[in-house]
Write a structure and sequence with these properties.
about 180 residues, alpha+beta, GMP Synthetase, Chain A, domain 3, Ribosomal Protein S8, Chain: A, domain 1, 2 domains, 3-stranded mixed beta sheet, 3-stranded antiparallel beta sheet, 4 helices, about 15% strand, globular, disordered N terminus
Length: about 180
């Protein structure tokens, strides 16, 4: 996903993500296709090792889009992979996988990990949250605050809000950082 969101006010996309740290990609320094491919390969090896250790079956798909490497772990059979598909577990595994990639490449990684379709399910939840917030605003509320969430989830929310013709910004610090939606 691109850092900028057209038609909305996004205050956290460049400020609270590690992208602005030394060595992180910037708008003018997006990772190349070969860098993203390398990130995906390292991440796949790491996750494959984890699956072997935990005796879980899963197929790993690697994709590169919007300046990020995406890794999806799915199973064509009924496996215990669902044990890893809880949002908190996926986020923790994603961070561990990013650290493994960073250790090997020496560069910050914006890798996204999905296990068993958990990201798609979370996006549906975020869409429902945004829809309810917009309904509150259309009903007369001056603004609607969403619960705290990760920078990646806030980015998804900012995109959803902008596509509905509203504006959003992130407020708060650390684990309390959340999105506030307002009329345009």
């Amino acid at each position: 996903m691109s850092i900028e969101t057209e038609g909305s006010t996004v205050t956290d996309s460049a400020l609270d993500t590690p992208d602005n740290l030394v060595g992180g990609p910037s708008e003018n320094n997006e990772p190349s296709g070969s860098q993203l491919e390398e990130e995906g390969d390292i991440a796949a090896d790491y996750i494959e090792e984890l699956l072997d250790i935990t005796d879980l079956d899963g197929d790993i798909d690697i994709d590169a889009r919007d300046g990020r490497a995406y890794l999806s772990v799915n199973s064509s059979q009924d496996s215990n992979l669902r044990l890893l598909s809880k949002p908190e577990t996926v986020n923790a595994l994603q961070e561990l996988t990013r650290i493994a990639v960073q250790t090997k490449t020496g560069s910050f990684s914006r890798l996204i990990l999905d296990v068993g379709g958990s990201r798609e399910a979370r996006q549906a939840e975020l869409t429902a949250l945004v829809t309810k917030a917009i309904e509150r605003i259309e009903g007369g509320a001056a603004a609607a605050a969403l619960p705290p969430m990760s920078s990646y989830e806030r980015k998804l929310v900012h995109d959803l809000v902008a596509s509905n013709g509203f504006i959003s910004e992130s407020e708060g610090e650390g684990r309390d950082r959340h999105t506030v939606i307002r009329p345009a």
